[in-house]
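@channel sequence for tomorrow's demo:
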Amino acid sequence: MLHPTEPDYYSILGVRREASLEEIRQAYHRLVTRFHPDVHPDDSDAEACLRSLNQAYALLKDPAQRARYDRWGAWGPPVWHPPGTGAVREWTVAVLNHLLIARDHLDAHKPQRGRDLRYSLHLTPQECLKGCEARINVANVRWCPQCQGSRMAAGKPPFPCPQCRGAREIRRPGWLLSTMRQCDVCAGEGVVVTDSCRRCTGKGAIQIMRTLTIDIPSGLQDGSRLRLQGEGGPGRWGGPAGDLYVYLSKSSSASRRDMDGVFLRPHV
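structure tokens (generated this afternoon):
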């Protein structure tokens, strides 16, 4: 399950990390035309979608804001919290810990490929022999149009964790040097969601069902696998989507529907 903690503007506009300004502009206008509330007056998500598109476009069209976003994400770099003492040892540990957190933060905002999905399709021996066209229903996820992935109501940013103050780890005093452990209040996320988005119940993403029509070539054997490139889970930070792998198995049933209720049409 996609579990974002901040808006992913590249995913919202459906563009690559390397997209040009013109590609971003075209994607924005295409999506605004498609999801505008005037086109979908009965869709409760339409206004939130438009608000998300406007916010994504406003940031990505500005070179300076885009560069900062690419580096640190929507909430910016991690906050520096100096130690409460003037001891050299404590300052050394604090600086090293901050550098490690900053490195992890940078790595977390690099383009990430979406996860691959798997689907099992059951065919009769005749369908495997002659081939067919199958319409399958595949569960997937997308960013929540209400909170844009922040998990907070109205898209507000989560609050820094009161225990670790956004550092995601807390310092445990030791005999020689302090040790670090994951913060148990925020579970290592550095933020606390206090007012969960009702649309996604605080998950940052919603589940959707997509209907795909695929062509099953003739002569496939039991256990064959078809790869549908880019039909898997969504990527993050401009990364590519994963792939969907359809695994075929023979069924003795002569029904025109497979076990998942997908309509099959034989080749003629």
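heads up for whoever presents: The first strand starts at residue 117 and ends at 123.
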